Amino acid sequence: MAVVLSFGGKSLDALYNETGSRDHVFDYLQSVIDNYDKLDPPIKEDTKNELVVIKTQIELLSLPSGDEYMGKGLALKDPESTKLLQPQHIRREVDTVWENDTKKASVKKKNGLSLFKLQAEAAKGHHWAVYTKDSKRPYWNQYDLLGLFFSKMGPAPGGDVADQSKFYLPLTAVYAKFCLWIGGKQIPSMKDDPEKKNKKGDGQGDPPAVFQCTWNSETGDFFLGATLAGDRSNGTKLEYGAWEDKVKKARWDLLANFFIFPGDWGPFEGGRSPAKELDKKTTLFGNCGETYPFLEMMGPHVKDTDRARMRGLALGKAFASVPLYEEQKFFNKLIPPCMSCQQLMVYAGIASVNQFTQDATMDIPLFPYWPSSGV
Ligand SMILES: [Zn+2]
Question: Which domain of life is it from (predicted)?
Answer without folding.
Answer: Eukaryota
